[in-house]
Specification:
The chain is mainly α. It has a domain of 55 residues. The protein contains 2 helices and no strands.
């Protein structure tokens, strides 16, 4: 996350704080308002923690190494005697 994205997050949290404060002044100690305040405080804590020590970068699906799987037939002998669990029938001898 870049510095500008962190600044944008801080700004959004500040805007959210203003909205929750307005709700508090209008609805008082209502349960949903208290929950929103708790959620806001958790968000503030998480945003500050993220800014101080960002988590490691996780590659997106497009950034991962491509694993080539050939279209050719695999060696059937490697599967002789294997169990066919979850295919709807019990163990049977494999055929070619």
């Amino acid at each position: 996350m870049t510095r500008s994205e962190i600044a944008e997050l801080s700004y959004a949290v500040g805007q959210l704080r203003q909205c929750v404060t307005a709700l508090r002044s209008h609805y008082g100690e209502a349960g949903p308002v208290r929950r929103l305040e708790n959620d806001l405080e958790r968000l503030v804590i998480d945003a500050e923690e993220f800014e101080q020590a960002p988590p490691p970068h996780v590659p997106r699906s497009g950034e991962q190494d491509v694993i080539y799987v050939p279209d050719s037939k695999s060696d059937e002998a490697a599967w002789m005697g294997a169990q066919d669990e979850g295919l709807g029938f019990h163990s049977r001898p494999r055929t070619k």
